[in-house]
Amino acid sequence: MAMVEPNDILELFASAGIDVDPQDVVHDEPLGRYGVDSMDVAGLIFEIERRYGLTVHPEDSAGLSTLEDVTALVNRLQG
Amino acid sequence: MTAGSLRINGIGRYLPSRRLPTRPRAGSLGISVELLESKIGITAQAVKDPDETTTDMAEKAVADLLDRHADLPLDEVGLLCVVTQNPEQRIPHTAALLHHRLGLPARCMTFDISQGCAGFVHGLAIATSAGQRLGARHALLVTADPYSEIVSPDDRESALLFGDAATATWLHDGPGLHVGAMNFGTVPGSSQVLTCRSGFAMQGREVFLHAVRHVPASIATVLAEAGLRSDEIAAYLVHPGSLALIRKLRSLLRVDEARCPFAVAEYGNPVSSSIPLMLLDGPRNPGPLVLCGFGVGFSWGTCLVEEVAS
């Protein structure tokens, strides 16, 4: 299975309702700096589940902060 | 699941007049105005008086129902169900207390349902089925859940979300909203997403995720069972957990705001009272309605209701 890249996750921002310009996002900075809140993250996780056919459990998503964290999570769950 | 013959004939409500605006408290909770207004969506919360009990609230909702429907024969009510997770006493059940206040007859079944935001639909299913089995011609389904008693004003997840409210729904064996196809469920292993031990605790992200994972499928199941297309539904009265959640569900259901309202901005998420409040205030378009509640459990309940003339 192909590795997921941060840009793949950024493509899901719009469908998750996250109103941030993907070009502004520095991959290792906390998403909160761009105004991404907890509800946005929930929406993003749902879009990830739909796109990649995954189920993200609470223990998986605890501590997610940066785009790199989210990308690493998806790659880990995809095995 | 077969529907009962009791139908919704009227609804009364009690919304405490006291309101707490949310905006002045957002900053101290670390909630931005943008998050409050565009995601949470609550501008004020209805809050009961400190000495007002759950039974008081329920009684006021029934009084409003009687104001609207003076022909409700209390002496013929054969079933009284109260949906609450905040009874003023552990024993007896709130329905017994309310039964006494209302002077209902001895031959009236009374029970509580400990359910949250899916409680009204659960109550409809149980009251219509039990009422039919009992041969009851009139039943009352009451929702009363003062979350102000359990939510901490310092809890960022929930302090600006809930509002106190109660409703009373008259079910009878005549014309009214017929309760049709139903679907219920509880997500295995999800019981801790909403809890109350020493205080109310909510895992907001998980509640959001369970809702968007399961609610559209539950509604699709009900529509399929009824043989209806989405565009044949007059309105989707979906529990307004938050504005962001309703927006997401609208998107997934492919319905617009007019057919899937968020009507609680001025008084807060009233838990099990949300759906009957929307029914009372809501859609006047003819046609079937989808009622869907979800929350504590994590449980959901969806049903179809449609006006039947006789």
Task: Write up what this structure looks like.
- The complex is a heterodimer of chains A (79) and B (310).
- Chain A is mainly α.
- Chain A has four helices and no strands.
- Chain A has helices spanning 6-10, 38-52, 58-61, 67-78.
- Chain A starts with 5 loop residues before the first helix and ends with a helix.
- Chain B has 310 residues and is of the alpha/beta class.
- Helices cover 30% and strands 25% of the residues of chain B.
- Chain B contains eight helices and 13 strands.
- Chain B has helices at residues 23-26, 33-40, 54-68, 94-102, 119-134, 204-226, 243-253, 274-281, and strands at 7-14, 19-21, 44-46, 77-83, 109-113, 138-144, 166-172, 176-186, 194-196, 200-202, 235-238, 289-295, 299-308.
- In chain B, helix 3 (54-68) packs across helix 4 and helix 6 runs parallel beside helix 7.
- The interface between A and B is medium-sized, with 14 and 17 residues.
Structure described in brief:
The complex is a heterodimer of chains A (79) and B (310). With 79 residues, chain A is an all-alpha fold. In chain A, 46% of the residues lie in helices and 0% in strands.
Q: How are the SSEs ordered, and which strands pair?
A:
The complex is a heterodimer of chains A (79) and B (310).
Chain A: H1 6-10, H2 38-52, H3 58-61, H4 67-78
Chain B: E1 7-14, E2 19-21, H1 23-26, H2 33-40, E3 44-46, H3 54-68, E4 77-83, H4 94-102, E5 109-113, H5 119-134, E6 138-144, E7 166-172, E8 176-186, E9 194-196, E10 200-202, H6 204-226, E11 235-238, H7 243-253, H8 274-281, E12 289-295, E13 299-308
Parallel strand pairs in B: 4-5, 4-6, 11-12
Antiparallel strand pairs in B: 1-7, 2-3, 6-7, 8-13, 9-10, 12-13
